[in-house]
């Protein structure tokens, strides 16, 4: 497990997952003559970090850094995305994209601390994650160099399939979990799990029931709905409290309330998604996702905005949310345009305060009411029964004035004989 | 039931619903000295049109016109909205807004045919529907005059509550259904039913289970999911076929397949919504809606676009869909900007052909697969296992080029000491 | 000149210009039984305020308030608009719209101080200014009531033309300037002068040379260009210094430098505009404008942004500038959406620092160079002669990756036989 | 001048300009063992095509194709851009970008006809033009391969400066024009000429007077303005007639009228531009441009739209014009998103018919009037002197209704204590 002869080529900080791919990459980098610092981010994925650490050390990592970044993940990227209702292509909640900048930032911190010349990761050359990692790296440390084995011909030509990796692992003495490979790939963190590739590459294939991991199958979910009465409270567009009268719990810590909502969403089968999306590199791709807490939070947040946000403010923010989602998806978290849009989103969220009642039931998340101390809703003026300060005759002038332009256009249209 | 003394003031075409409000308006218009032509549009609402007709004649309508506009409703406005994924404020499916232009157009046709000087409707002075009707009237017949009793002080001061209307009905011999008034208002058509006002004016009040009318309560829906296998087929973005292998039916007529999807959606509790929205006149309002087929169709249509629509085309169309939804909501169907945006939407829908598999279950509508003969999805290039003509090294240049701008910005940021 | 019999109806704060219209309105309001406080804003228009004050007192104003708001005009609205490059319909620099909120805010201050129940102005019922004033009034004092004589039938029916006003002035002893009325209307402030109505109502009529007031006719402008070398310096998107090596002057005070640029622009015939625009009330209108300093400032500011602003930041800001211009034009300065957009604009302007060289010559304003200490321009990487850290091969991957999507689309297009 | 030993490597269609760079590339490709077909597009640049042809043949081109594409250039891309008012970053008229797809399409036609395996061009690896050419190539012939010498290390390392090219030309017997090289690069076509690099790489350097080529220095332009009375007539947004009463000429052919406007613009010094722009590859670049006819046409076209285009239609189109300009700039003419946006632009241009009066004078282009048979301008309703069917009281309701939302917001703002 020693490095190649002579002086090392340099020091690499590798984003290590503990799986077959990055274990082989770790061994291969050492074989190529690099010193390797392994780095694992705890972003809430299901993983035995100590086992993985021992494995990396056994393969030859000079050191292994395990970093719990869950708190910054939820506070900095997840809740920012929720406050913007950011959904890529109007549907995808960005579970992987939101984790990448958090992982990359810590990796660069370690690379700097450990004096690394290089960073490396195990992402493929066709996907989004390579971009998300590397744009982040370059933003945070413009002089860093990236080693991306899956884009290096001598690597990808050598390892053309899973069997080649298994053979190499055997050769290098890398322990391999004996579970049979699943016919799809996954990426998991606290916010979501993604499934792609393998049998999912036919977009008409319905995912098998046993693929889904985080959430219960809606058909198997409890027959009794879960009602989170006065449940989710927001302050300036960020969740600050979850109350469930049913189980008598209250959660106020940002991470803790998130994990609680995750548990509720999982139990009731909330947050599954199956789509064909457009990768940044221009390739269409089919992905399945489970995002339990995120699905609930965005539904609740969007609902509350109906009560407390000015119509025009909402409309303008809504023109930028898709752009924000797109740039997060594409990997531009550490970019001036992300800061710019977030400055507007943050301004829009001042006063997005209040509580939303939620019902979870067999896969769906339903809003059952909302309230706020700073509501823009005025019961009297809204009422159909009382005037509430509204003069109905004002509407006459409102409508007639709006009709001026339409009448002018119709008159010219008639003249042109287009009607 | 005769008109006032002397020559009539003119002839009015009244949009008549058969209910208490428009029955009183009918009587009141006659009392004011107008000749009234009553007009009822069959837009798929639950109604005994013959009973309503007899009632209008009894009150004194000179004639009553009942028009079935369901086919043009589904073909012209509903499917146009589906093809644009048009949702107001990202959530409301526009059920009332899409019906208004269809109703108004027919009303103007009748007004012209019957030589009317005026049109009239029973909408209040605070709502959206007055705008939708009148902008449509003015667009289609710029010289028409509108009589809107709920904006005329002598009318709205006389009729300050339901009891005043009941008293007037008794006085005028207008038959009143003896059912107790519900503590909310509704507006129903083939696409949806809306609920507002009354107890719903407190936005934190959960709607009672017996309010919902079109859809089964999800908790009471069948325990067995409904799978519409290869179910909804689109051609140029419009639904052309629904197949349900479960019940062995196939539907291809535009109206018939819509009604079938409605039946399926109702059975499985799909399409309920409870929101606070922003009316065009600047008032916030709480509304509840049931839109079964619409909910299914937009989910299926949006999913199919992932497979067959170019990313940039989708992105550009998505910047205009909210504007389209807004202008439909505000009443500008017969307006140049609606025609303009639809020209782009129609262009974008060329080639939105294919089929989507749907599962309906206890309130939710889930996509289980999609296929198309003109898919832009390329399994080989998408695959993580084979190259499929893709050179992974190209990604290197792609990323490095995208990083140039980010590095330049970070360098200046560092110079400014902002980091 | 006395008020009507009995107790006054209330106290009105009237925006008074000193001209025939508002003088008659002042007299008429008194005749109607109101106490009138006259208010004149000094926004840099050409006016003898003392003469106007004496006139108002003579007519019967209870008091006259003259307020110099030029500094807040330039600092709060003019430079905000410049920092956003705000131009309505891509062409109009908003000279009137930017003055209105400043005037209205001071008027409400006075109205509050003087215990007024009403505010009043002399704007017509067809224009934009009534909206701009009144939306500002209602925002700043929701309970205020507006008296708008030109929308009151007893007023506008009585005064149907200029002669009726002259007769009334004679009757009331209102002094009238003996100059012959010009065949157009004007509105002047420090930022611009507008011309409309009269002979300009034919949009094909070329404005006569003697109409233009602020700027020299380009044909009569100096034959020698004015070069403001290193002339206009911006800090965070706002002008902070103007240097003219030609006349040896330097100006750094925000108001003073503005007035200096105005003088330069006027001398060289810069800033004339002749357009047909769309009023908020839906009417098309022909207007001519002179905006000397504004034209120079926006040209310089936009140029500097090319050097110091990130491409994507600029692109996003540019999607909101038209909306900002529109809402300012429509009168929504004191509105949440204006604050929202300005929050993004202000963020975008951090680091818009640097200097721009300007040449003024016979009506045109030409950029001759620009520099900044925080430039994002990198001479080496831009150079066609040296590599500057750029690897030309990266472009290969960049292009080939961008082509993936295009190739997929062309393949399907060919399949569809659309080509 | 012979090819390498053995069979040729394949056949290349080279975009040949006749200059030093592409002459060396031609020789080098032959040296590398390729057969080369030289192709020159006549896009209106100043060039002796016969001399260039002889030169290419002398160097060893198998054949030389000279193609006059001026008509399709003006009809297909220039007038499309004018009809959209397409300007990149709100300022640049896209002169090079609009020529590239026209050149590339003809090149692919020739490549197919001549059985070429490759296409080649002389663009650098840092610029926009490589992208514009290659995206067009790949769109029109997905299987084509590109040889781009300035991105091939053995080429760009061998030719590191102009002297290396001159030495190679001498070695290969390539005739070189004896004029001294200018300290900047140019690209010229009928629409514009661009200047960049060399001394222009300092963005603060004012371009020397003798750099500008197409247009007269404004200071040297005629002292008498040129008035094109009723001059430019558009039909559906495209210019169809130019009349100059001054010289008695009328032009109606699309190419001819364009060349005439070019001559007028050149004479009066119209259309110069000096900017720092953002290249697609993420590099900032300083460029100077002369676009005489384009500057006049867009000014006239935009003005006419004020008269004949509905406000909302204009506003929506204006949200897409910047995106259209961007994608043209980036090289995506042959892309689905360009077709999509043009479908909307074309719809918006129906009825953009009418004439605009223009004055050209010492560098500026001024609008002096406009008229149309399908104007949406209504003199009566616009008039400040007559009612024209407008009821001023309608404005009251219009304003009061718009104020509802603002008052609600101010009330909550006060509650939050933010005011």
Automatic annotation (TrEMBL), chains A, B, C, D:
Domain Arginosuccinate synthase-like N-terminal positions: 11-175
Gene Ontology CC annotation, any one: cytoplasm
GO molecular function terms attached to this record: argininosuccinate synthase activity; ATP binding
Recorded metabolic or biological pathway in which this protein acts: Amino-acid biosynthesis; L-arginine biosynthesis; L-arginine from L-ornithine and carbamoyl phosphate: step 2/3
One Gene Ontology term from the biological process aspect of the record: L-arginine biosynthetic process
UniProt cross-references to CDD domains, sorted A to Z: ASS
Signal peptide segment: none
Gene3D superfamilies, per the entry: Argininosuccinate synthetase, chain A, domain 2, HUPs
EC number: 6.3.4.5
Domain (Arginosuccinate synthase C-terminal) ranges: 184-408
NCBIfam families hit by this protein: argG (TIGR00032), PRK00509.1 (NF001770)
Assembly: Homotetramer.
Name the record gives this protein: Argininosuccinate synthase
